[in-house]
Amino acid sequence: MDTVLVLTIGVVVFALAFDFINGFHDTANAIATSVSTRALKPRTAVYMAAAMNFLGALTFTGVAKTISKDIVDPFMLDKGSVVILAALLSAIAWNLITWYYGIPSSSSHALIGSIAGAAISAAGFGILNYGGFLKIMEALILSPFIAIAGGFLVMSLFKVILKNRNLFKANKRIRYMQIGTAALQSFTHGTNDAQKAMGIITMALIAAELQTSDDIQLWVRIAAATAMGLGTSIGGYKIIKTVGGKIMKIRPVNGIAADLSSAAIIFGATLIHLPVSTTHVISSSIMGVGSAQRVKGVKWGVAKKIVITWVITLPISATMAAIIYQFLNLFF
């Protein structure tokens, strides 16, 4: 069998594996607040998230097109299949390491950093599409700050609305509303995160000259959505524990405020075809909500560890991908 075809098949397999791992790694963030407030039982939340992620992944393709052409031009990439395979192996390795330690790191940062690192290792810094790459980086950097502000504002609004209400009764009603916001959160996660694997597969198909445009084929969309849904059904309880309880003590009103603000930001990014880190956005929204309620109520030590992981993910994944590319290049 032709080497390029073998590499392309390898890319498809590992891209779907990345989506599967992303399902139980990142999707845990989307349901963490509803599980921690006991609005949903963990197993019920996981299955609901799996279904909503699948639907979200099938609905949009704009982010996939951004991933496929805005970091590196696949039409200009020599040994493109090797580059993409190295990037996937790096991103998967980093996701598994952070999942093992229960740290909610960013799959988006890991993947984008890995693509850049592998491409630079193959062809130098000139291979990057700097206009598109910087646009993606701006979205990744700014979205957590917008999420903190959004969480703070929504929670402040809820405090005004519920000022003269019986908090026990209000929290009881809001807990039921959290089922809807958790579903919305999972849907928006699918609209953004699942598309990253679609973009990677499309890059590989272009590099192998199996397609000549950046259109996302139907089988790619279905395969990526299925992998994300299956991964979600496995669940990511370590991440749920960190996001749902270790950043702050979450009550139903906090959970719904965090869900609404983060879902709006993620879906907004999807509509303008920009990838964002759902992990960053959701965790930052929770920090914003906690700050609005009581600054000292946020466990800033845990938040600091999460932020450090956010910062180091991109350079570490880029370095890992560069090394993996050089290793694969010995054989291909």
The rough form would be described as: elongated
* Tally of helical segments: 13
What proportion of the residues is helical, as a percent range? over 70%
Order of helices and strands: HHHHHHHHHHHHH
What would you report as the Rg, rounded to the nearest angstrom?
20 Å
Distance between the termini: 14 Å
Oligomer: single chain
Q: What is the percentage of strand-forming residues?
A: under 5%
Average predicted confidence as pLDDT? 84
Overall tally of structural domains:
1
Membrane topology: Multi-pass membrane protein
Transmembrane segments: 6-24, 45-63, 83-103, 110-133, 139-162, 306-328
Main location: membrane
Keywords: Membrane, Transmembrane, Transmembrane helix, Transport
Secondary structure topology:
Layout: H1 3-36, H2 42-59, H3 62-69, H4 80-100, H5 107-123, H6 130-161, H7 167-192, H8 194-207, H9 218-234, H10 237-246, H11 252-271, H12 278-293, H13 300-329
Helix pairs in contact: 1-2, 1-4, 1-7, 1-8, 1-9, 1-10, 1-12, 2-7, 2-9, 3-8, 4-5, 4-13, 5-13, 6-11, 6-12, 7-11, 8-9, 11-12
In short:
By secondary structure, the protein is mainly α. The protein is built from 13 helices and no strands. The protein has one domain (3-329).
